[in-house]
Amino acid sequence: MKVLLAIETSCDDTGAAVINLDDGELLSNAVATQEVHAKYGGVVPELASRAHDEGIFPVVLQALDDANSSLEQVAAVAFTKGPGLIGALVVGAAFAKGLAIARNLPLIGVNHMRAHVLAHMIDAPKPDFPFLCLTVSGGHTQLIRVNGPFEFVLLGQTLDDAVGEAFDKAAKMLGLGYPGGPILDKLAESGNPMAFKLPQARVAGYDFSFSGFKTAVKVLIDRESSSNPRFVDDNLPDLCASVRFALVDTLMKKLVAASNATGIKRLAIAGGVSANRELRRRLEALGNTNRYQTFIPKFEYCTDNAGMIAMTAWYHHQHELFENAAVKPNPRLSLDTEFLPLNKPSSES
Ligand code: KG4
Ligand code: ZN
User: Fold this and answer.
1) Furthest CA-CA distance within the chain
2) 12 lines ligand 1 (CB under 6 A)
3) Is residue 340 domain-resident?
4) C-alpha R_g of the chain
5) What confidence tens digit (pLDDT) does each residue in 216-245 have?
6) pLDDT tens across 94-121, in order?
7) Average pLDDT, stretch 191-218?
8) Number of the ligand 1 atom closest to the C-alpha atom of 279
9) What is the domain count for the chain?
């Protein structure tokens, strides 16, 4: 069996995954989440690069081991080309390039945001094309029409903060740890989402804006805390549920509006925030109406992982879309910027 080894190092998760090149079955998906950032309340880029450097080889060995594969079986190598933190991307790119050069393997550079979407192709049920995908993470909020594995149409995106950032900032104001999104989500389960009415920005089309939201949460906390210093502690689950409701409701309204406008009834979510329980329930409820087909990723494919990089790279390999070793990671690689000089290392060497 020939396999492809994929590496993900765009932010603070060091990932490696192995996929069967013949049939596209994902054989392993190893990840090491960097704990070092928690005490700083956010990702520290320099520390992320160093932790990737330390973690990458053990994670690669883990992925090969989990897949019962050996380095000899690796017939192609993929890495995350961008977007992401440049110092972090460089670690994965350098590792992949080194391996590709040493063993004369085809090298594949993967767009991280496309990979979040194509994570839906790892396990059944897989959406048919076209489908709509809401990609929601700490760095991005994108509403995408996916026409095929290489055809992504950006219908809308955030004009300022990403929705994951809005979750994390609200969580910080409520005194929760970092990253606060998952903690807030958990606490929200026992709260009343209607307890506090928080504003939802009205933005034209399919774009989003979340920068005013954090101000609204701050104004609420400051106002109420002036008469009750224990306001946040006394109302924590209700505050979490109200924040979550406002953010998720904004996302769902745009997704449904895009579905109505395009007539596309296959709806998917992707990215770290797609782990949010309320967002998953809301999408599931839509699916239960039988008017929509909905696709909710497994938790392990929501946050950053190399499995999604491997899946995307598998499509590249099918079409022989390779890079040469001079390829540079691009921290701002956009959804629709594609590279593609169709280089095959074998014909170059
Ligand atoms: O995709 P991701 O792992 O990293 C990138 O930003 O690329 O997404 C991380 C984001 C963080 O903002 C985190 O707080 C958010 O996803 N997140 C959640 C949940 N799980 C992760 N936000 C809300 N509810 C969750 N359950
Ligand atoms: Zn991501």
Assistant:
1) 73
2) no
3) no
4) 21
5) 999 999 999 999 999 999 999 999 999 999
6) 999 999 999 999 999 999 999 999 999 9
7) 96
8) 24
9) 2
- Counting ligands in written order, the one closest to the CA of 80 is 2
Q: Is the per-residue pLDDT at 348 higher than 50?
A: no
Q: Which amino acid is at 208?
A: F
Nearest-CA residue for ligand 1 atom 3 is: 303
231 and 174 both lie in a single domain: yes
Which atom of ligand 1 sits closest to the CA of residue 137?
8
CB atoms within 10 A of CB 253: 11
The pLDDT value recorded for residue 44 is 80
pTM score, whole prediction: 0.93
**Number of the ligand closest to the Cα of 302:** 1
Rounded mean pLDDT of 249-268?
97
Range of the domain at 258: 125-297
Q: 3-state DSSP call for residue 274?
A: helix
State in Å: Cα 79 to ligand 2 middle.
Answer: 14
pLDDT of amino acid 51: 87
- Give the distance (Å) from ligand 2 centre to CA of residue 139: 7
Domain shared by 15 and 70, yes or no: yes
Question: Percent of the chain having pLDDT more than 70?
Answer: 96
- Are residues 138 and 113 part of one domain? no
Does 192 lie in the same domain as 137?
yes
Q: How confident is the model at residue 345 (pLDDT cuts 50, 70, 90)?
A: very low
